[in-house]
Fold these 3 entries.
Entry 1:
Amino acid sequence: MEAKPNAIVAQSGGPTAVINSSACGVIQEVISSDRIGRVLGATNGILGVLKEDLFDISAESPETIEALKQAPAAAIGSCRYKLKSLEASRADYERILDVFRAHNIHYFFYIGGNDSMDTADKVAKLAAERGYELVCMGVPKTIDNDLAYTDHCPGYGSVAKYVATCAMEAGKDTEALYTTDTCSILEVMGRNAGWIAAATGLAQRCNEDAPHLIYMPEVEFTFDKLVSDVKEVLKELGRVFIVAGEGLKDKNGNYITADTGAFGKDSFGHAQLGGVAEILKAVIEKEVGIKVRFNKLGTNQRSAMHFASLTDVNEAYMCGQMAVRYAMADENGKMVTLIRQDGPEYKCTTGLAELIDVANGEKNVPAEYINEKGNHITDAMRDYVRPLVQGQAPITIGEDGLPVFVRFQRKPLEKKLPEYL
Amino acid sequence: MEAKPNAIVAQSGGPTAVINSSACGVIQEVISSDRIGRVLGATNGILGVLKEDLFDISAESPETIEALKQAPAAAIGSCRYKLKSLEASRADYERILDVFRAHNIHYFFYIGGNDSMDTADKVAKLAAERGYELVCMGVPKTIDNDLAYTDHCPGYGSVAKYVATCAMEAGKDTEALYTTDTCSILEVMGRNAGWIAAATGLAQRCNEDAPHLIYMPEVEFTFDKLVSDVKEVLKELGRVFIVAGEGLKDKNGNYITADTGAFGKDSFGHAQLGGVAEILKAVIEKEVGIKVRFNKLGTNQRSAMHFASLTDVNEAYMCGQMAVRYAMADENGKMVTLIRQDGPEYKCTTGLAELIDVANGEKNVPAEYINEKGNHITDAMRDYVRPLVQGQAPITIGEDGLPVFVRFQRKPLEKKLPEYL
């Protein structure tokens, strides 16, 4: 009797608090399926496939697999390795199929953003061309929330909850110390989309609350506007709390962190060393004459499992689980999407989008979510994000008082092919 | 019948997650005392006293006062206004007594660090000199944990729990993405003491866990050592996670952020714009040739009420409460201290120290808490900090899914004196 086909699951790009929940959904659903043999993990995403660096997730304990729901970052391992077009990266794509063939892999579940969906799409197409039976399914993942065809992305709800709370808390700090530490900046991620910055707007329940100003990459950024915005808030409240997306751009679409003009490195020096927050700080201190502090949460915002959204964890799991169910229902070459149902109660179901469409799409914060002045959000944005931050995802606390995060045993699969890369 | 004497409570310096718990302890205990009239708040610490900017905390609802236990930052308001010696700032000290007299204030509860204890001490001395009946009691507060005469400081346990968890979580991120994002730096507070940096050591349960390297101001910092430390960890694990205290110093005791030498602004440019993390990043990228990211939690670490230590919240409350009880027992001119009891179970009681002694003291991380290489902590440090991070302080979550933090109504007291400042 021929062995049942195996499945492989891989994670790609910047981790999130819930990418392991998606992995857990895939893994548990594969294990409960009688049509699939083992579920394998690709160490460090597609890099693990290329290097034939695989391990047997089926050999991990059920407790370890269940604990993925509570573990931030990518437990299977992630990477930033980019594959180009089928023509330009042909050897890589062929290698992927070779590795799949060598390990009897006929199901490929790829958890990631647009680039990953692009890779999965091309692998699916090459497999079809070669007559190799392969089901490729994408599971959405990105804190940036910029994937098209899905209401929102797993990972976003948790980062939204965390950064909004951070804005609230640091805002209280600024409120307490405003007589000297008058202005604070919270720099958040989002290179091209302002979804994360926008989420912090939920923290402002009344005028006094932080954040008072929110700058998103969707709005052309000018230092003149910044200075006048800051002065206006100062006049009203005597303090100002600013949230800045890391990817703010000037009128020409250039990142202000690369600015070489009047406010760039010539006048403020070595802007290349700093991010958006440093530049804003320098400008405000010089032009407004108040002390500015900044917080840069960095990777902590996308790994904040200790305050993750339960809604997000559950939806991330559902996306992973549904990817397998859709595969069992003969779907292929598609990514699972989240569909927000109409009605007074928030409810989300799943749907499907073509991998190629997701790969080529991008979703920015729409104009109706941004206020007229371009420095805060509207109630429509609040309504959009509010349901996504609901609930506290459970975590296990160890005897030392700190969270316990699982790590795989990683039983490596024997390599069957010549070395590559 | 003469009115009962009033009490005033003030908060000073950088806020913490639990400084309001201490205020709550003071306020609730004063309210339950039949020897004290009203409890007043000094808006923005001693600045509020000087400006006669006071409000009636007794007029706030009991629910608001109780909710202080869940509110980060300084709800009464804080400041960085520094009083000098009795001679140099005589007018200020006289003004404080004038304001106290005008509002029948005979109890002064000051929640803060050494500078605040110094102020409280001088106020007490001047009052005695002037024959004005005044009880001055200090309540310890600082995330820096550098106050002498107390086992630890309220505020420290919460920041310790939060930064250790952040190191754990961001460490997982680095572990997942190490093939490109090989090195991460977490910059934490602590200008002169490394207690906060040291606390992150608790996150490392095994060799693979972050943080791999911890740099504290107590150890002379050299870039050569940094580079060789990083290379050693890289060789073993292929990645490295570093925690750096913001106040790292060179062999001459100068902050490395003020460095103008080989690794200073001449070679890395405009170091004055950056903090420790930026400088370490620049050096490691150049000398080791790996990509470095950094997270700078800033004021978010000291305001992280969403993950505060229950032990810390309870002890902060106890310190406030005991300050009043000691005052009722005729103590004066003293600060409440925390005393760790001997025995297998962690237990803390309170004691007293002279304000002047606390003002002149400082407590750094002792040598036995730092490993021989000067780049991590010992088990003695783990044993010290572990009990302090235990338990999750409750927070109230609003319908919008985010924490609810209280804000005083602030019923201002009528001013009775001429303007000052």
Entry 2:
Amino acid sequence: MSAVTAPTRNGIDTATLFATLDLIKAQPELARFQFRATNRWLGGGHNRSTIKGFYAAGGEDTTRTETFEIDAGEPAILLGTDTGPNPAEYLLHALAACLTTSIVYVAAARKVELTSVESTITGDMDVRGALGVDDEPRNGFEAIRISFSVTGDAPPEKLREVVERAKRRSAVYDMVTNGVPVAVDVATG
Amino acid sequence: MSAVTAPTRNGIDTATLFATLDLIKAQPELARFQFRATNRWLGGGHNRSTIKGFYAAGGEDTTRTETFEIDAGEPAILLGTDTGPNPAEYLLHALAACLTTSIVYVAAARKVELTSVESTITGDMDVRGALGVDDEPRNGFEAIRISFSVTGDAPPEKLREVVERAKRRSAVYDMVTNGVPVAVDVATG
């Protein structure tokens, strides 16, 4: 029995964190994950994703008990009835959430106790692209800006280093800035 | 008074749809939109985005009455407590939702009455990247696959054309496949 108790920092069990990193270093095949969602159209601009199962560390996950259902919509000006955030807003959420979690985990590993992490994220779009009225503007956001406010028990320079490291490791930041190959297939009838 | 009543197709008011497209063609400056979210860390792998306001068609939106709050989390194996889908799962949702909405709107414009649009989306990740234990695997998904099942009152070839057009106009598909410049700034203390 060790005299060192497992320290929880930023709500993260750092003993488990380091044990997980060691395990994956030793057995890289455990690092293969697959995440999934199913989506169903509910009428107009309203659709719903269902998220539960995923593959991780050599097998299908059995720990997640809740099935998440998340609704997307469009506001009136985009011909919907506000049944949820729109898909582009969900992308902003995914990016802000991933950078935030990365900041929290990096800080935990580097012995920085955070007190708050807040952010505002914006995306600018010329909707002529997505609406198909002009081929020149791209369909998606031309630019995304995210402003973090981070406080904790480390000097500003150290907090900035944590954010910088989080950027270099965030899964969604990588995908949104660099792109991912997407294969689409269709069954009809 | 027109004898032609506004036809709703796939839950979309197509008269309003075409009027919106005509307006934006005539006044391209109305096509400038900005979407936003604010995010706050709630402990460990748990954070929450708040989404309401956006800029559209020359002014700040006043039609959306609901404030959306969406929670992100991580499963146990990624050191969280399943307080919501994780950020990478939200990105899959954003992509499936955007392609689905694009399919529905394109079909409405092309006089195709849809009966169902369902999809399954998966993303494959080697988590050594995001966990920072190896520099070789990328942080995000290596590949995303989405399989649509689409039914409606058009022949299979026409339904496939609708999906193909939706891909070419989807805002999130553009962003996820091509990437977007993201600016991150940080205030500390």
Entry 3:
Amino acid sequence: METPVALLGGTGKLGPGLAMRFARAGVAVVIGSRDAERGAAAAEEVRAKLSAVAPDAAAVEGTDNLDAARRGGIAVVTVPFEGQAALLPELAEALRGKVVVSTGVPLRFEDGVGPVHVEVAEGSAAQQAAALLPGARVVAAFHSVSSAELKRLAHDVAGDVIVTGDDAGAKQVTMELARLLPGARAVDGGPLRCARYSEHLTVLLLVVNGIYRTHAGVMLTNLPPASGG
Amino acid sequence: METPVALLGGTGKLGPGLAMRFARAGVAVVIGSRDAERGAAAAEEVRAKLSAVAPDAAAVEGTDNLDAARRGGIAVVTVPFEGQAALLPELAEALRGKVVVSTGVPLRFEDGVGPVHVEVAEGSAAQQAAALLPGARVVAAFHSVSSAELKRLAHDVAGDVIVTGDDAGAKQVTMELARLLPGARAVDGGPLRCARYSEHLTVLLLVVNGIYRTHAGVMLTNLPPASGG
């Protein structure tokens, strides 16, 4: 795995959670933000939270998105879906040839209705990312991992990370990344066209969260024992 | 729960599996088919398989779809999605006011691609069923339950049954029905508009089945202990 892992738009909900877990597992992280200072501040906060529980964690730095994209061996797009069309084109050159993990879920919150999926012309957030990043090795993952659960460092992340993509090597790298989350299993969910099903599943999980007041994850049953890990 | 449970188009893959599990749990079943004799033959087969393991199982009868719809206290639509638009209109009168459970998944198998979802104008197979059955209390469930697993009577059904619907009472009845499957947990998946996410999840499970050579199911994590059952 080529490190550091760049977390693009990493100052939001998912970015700091993944940063903590990756760094704690010994993988260096660069948090990218629109503003380099905000990126640095987010990294500082992550380091502070980690210092108490994992003094030997890997480096966590913060910078702007373009610098993070350039430095990252792998990039994880953690900007909300509605922000990716504005962000990704300016990073395309820096991300060419790299493994790029799409985590976005195209959804909106409708008054009196709740979370509703948004149709994406390309089929999914991941396919849109692939269209915006020519030459990047785009994979989709981490849709159903709760940011709140990631930040509860004393707890395992209960659930599977469903990984979809068309580049077998990029998928392997992403599955290794997923296995850095303690308790998580990486599941091959097929080609990138299937990212849409995993993204939509997250909309369902958000509805379930509202009903049961929880942060639900997902786990597939009946997989062969050797499959995940 | 008003019985018997009518399994409409119940001679296919899902119908006989549900029939075995419901009857074994003490709930009478009527299998409906386009042809009354095929319905009777399917019922005979289910009874034969049950007699060895569950001599005290509830009654399993077979008939045509209209008769099954009339006799059923609850109806489960187990015809493949592509057949429901032709079947349901002629059953609408018989099903008015009843709990009707949609299990259909709108998908096609594309050569060299695999299972692909099919867009439904109404949003989902369940919403199409609701449009075709005015006055019926339509709920969606059982999408991710493997027919193969249902038929392995010695085994529990590992996984959740995600139930979506707009009629709270109908949803409760369907969740009770789901709990008849040993090992299964019933999960409230929100309103009927969310059926689409559960249907699409099944397309993903079919892709996963191809990769891992299994019959995968799904289980939500982090639900409060008292929730399912």
